[in-house]
Amino acid sequence: MIHYFSEKKYDQLVKNYIQYETNYRFIEEIGVGSYGVAYLIEDSITSSKYVFKRLKTKHRHKNSVRQKFRQEIQILKELELPNVPSFITSGELHEIPFYMMDYVDGKTFEQAIFQEGAVFTLEQSLQITKELLEIVAEFHKKGIVHRDLRIPNILLSNNSLKIIDFGLAAYIKENNQPEKLVNPKRAQNHSSDLYFIGHFLLFLLYSNYSPTKKKERSWQEELRLPIEMVNYLERLLLIQPGFSSAHDALLNLPLHVENHESFYF
Ligand SMILES: Nc1ncnc2c1ncn2[C@@H]1O[C@H](COP(=O)(O)OP(=O)(O)OP(=O)(O)O)[C@@H](O)[C@H]1O
């Protein structure tokens, strides 16, 4: 028999399932994405927090979406890195797949910049980019490209970076030729992550920018960065020939960023 569940009705089923059939306590819904819904739950004994993520009810019979969700789970299982939430378990509730992962208690760079007005200096921006590139190099070593490294998916938690949302992540296809990329964001190789990191770095640098002219200009004109920074950003953004890997981008990071400047906010 095919059941139809509205999102609201299914939310209630999830709450009841967590409350009465698991050792967890339901806390709240934390987000509705394009194809999933995420809830915050906690272990009733240890009080450790987790995220319960499930597919939207309207996608339950779409094979392509189910396959994407399975891949997201598989990739999270394979990554097992300190900067990525650990996979806990997965299953199905009334034919709708879900999985659980560690909750990252931190704030996203989107919240930090746009809600709290955090400002990053050039040195801090480079330090954060360096740490991000180190994490991303680990993903690539495991054959995985994230493909959605935007400010809402990069968090600062206990002064270290955490990456979430592997919904668009993919297995690397080595035969992609970077110079022939039509859409770098969707590339199935390192270029996609480096391209997003270029935009991420621009967000950090713009946090320190106050417009002096009414007319919007290009980032090259507005930010007035040292030439090696402009070249570096242009290589990440593929305006100039890109880096051959995340490791290559790390080796070419401009300026001296070894003196750890804290980036607390
Ligand atoms: N492991 C986690 N720890 C803390 N917060 C998380 C975690 N995973 C997801 N979130 C938060 O839950 C919300 C929903 O995230 P999710 O990745 O499901 O979808 P989304 O990013 O909103 O949308 P889409 O899947 O369309 O990209 C977001 O606010 C995200 O910050």
Walk me through this protein's architecture:
The longest helix has 20 residues. It is globular and about 60 Å long. A hairpin with a 2-residue loop joins β8 and β9. The chain is α+β, with helices and mostly antiparallel strands and 265 residues long. Strands 1-2-3-5-4 form a 5-stranded antiparallel sheet, sandwiched between helices. Strands 6-8-9 form a 3-stranded antiparallel sheet. It has a two-stranded antiparallel ribbon with strand order 7-10. It has 2 domains: 93 residues, Phosphorylase Kinase, domain 1; 146 residues, Transferase(Phosphotransferase) domain 1 (Transferase(Phosphotransferase), domain 1, Orthogonal Bundle), CATH 1.10.510. The chain is built from 8 helices and 10 strands. 37% of the residues lie in helices and 20% in strands. The structure holds adenosine-5'-triphosphate. One of its GO terms (molecular function) is protein tyrosine kinase activity. InterPro entries: Kinase-like_dom_sf, Prot_kinase_dom, Protein_kinase_ATP_BS, Tyr_kinase_cat_dom. It comes from Ureibacillus yapensis.
Question: What characteristics describe this protein?
Answer:
265 residues; alpha+beta; Transferase(Phosphotransferase), domain 1; 5-stranded antiparallel sheet; 20% strand
In short:
By secondary structure, the protein is an alpha+beta fold. The chain has helices at residues 7-21, 63-79, 109-115, 122-141, 190-206, 219-223, 227-236, 246-251, and strands at residues 24-32, 36-43, 49-55, 87-93, 96-102, 107-108, 144-145, 154-157, 160-163, 170-171. It folds into two domains: 10-102, Phosphorylase Kinase, domain 1 (2-Layer Sandwich), CATH 3.30.200; 107-252, Transferase(Phosphotransferase) domain 1 (Transferase(Phosphotransferase), domain 1), CATH 1.10.510.
